[in-house]
Write a structure and sequence with these properties.
Blueprint: H1 8-19, E1 23-26, E2 29-33, E3 38-44, H2 45-54, E4 62-64, E5 70-76, H3 83-92, E6 95-96, E7 102-104, E8 113-116, H4 128-138
Antiparallel strand pairs: 1-2, 2-7, 3-5, 3-6, 4-5, 4-8
Helix pairs in contact: 2-4
Length: 140
């Protein structure tokens, strides 16, 4: 996918154009910054695979870390998450990314990769609540 890219700017442009991701460069790495529209959920890989398989409509874009131990779901920010749910998520090893945190995006065949690549075209993300409800359903 990145064969035609010579610079980090080329990679960022490709990710913006192909997937509609609001990509920023940070230390020459393409990232997405969590904000009022987009946030991220870090989920242990075995649980993340089950969540991805069980999502009702359309899978979320999901990024794997270099060791494949954590998958990061990119989601649309919806409403607050209450303290009880946050406690349950921590117990499962799930982390909610805070506003301003960056998500590193895949740039090639090594390192970070796609567990579920976004569909080309305008960016469409599932709601955070949808992914969290799916997680609660498969791992009560």
């Amino acid at each position: 996918m990145f064969e035609s890219c010579c610079t980090p700017y080329d990679v960022a442009h490709l990710l913006r154009a192909r997937y509609g991701l609001p990509v920023r460069l940070d230390a020459h790495r393409p990232t997405v910054v969590c904000d009022a529209r987009i946030t991220a959920l870090d989920v242990p890989a075995p649980l993340a695979a089950r969540v991805l398989d069980a999502l009702p409509d359309r899978p979320a874009p999901v990024i794997t870390n270099p060791r494949g131990t954590v998958w990061t779901f990119l989601v649309h920010r919806t409403g607050p998450v209450d303290h009880e749910r946050r406690r349950r998520l921590r117990r499962r090893g799930v982390a909610l990314r805070a506003p301003g945190r960056r998500v590193l995006l895949p740039v090639g065949d090594g390192g970070f990769g796609w567990a579920c690549e976004p569909e080309p075209g305008p960016l469409r993300l599932p709601g955070r609540a949808t992914v969290l409800d799916t997680l609660d359903r498969i791992d009560p």
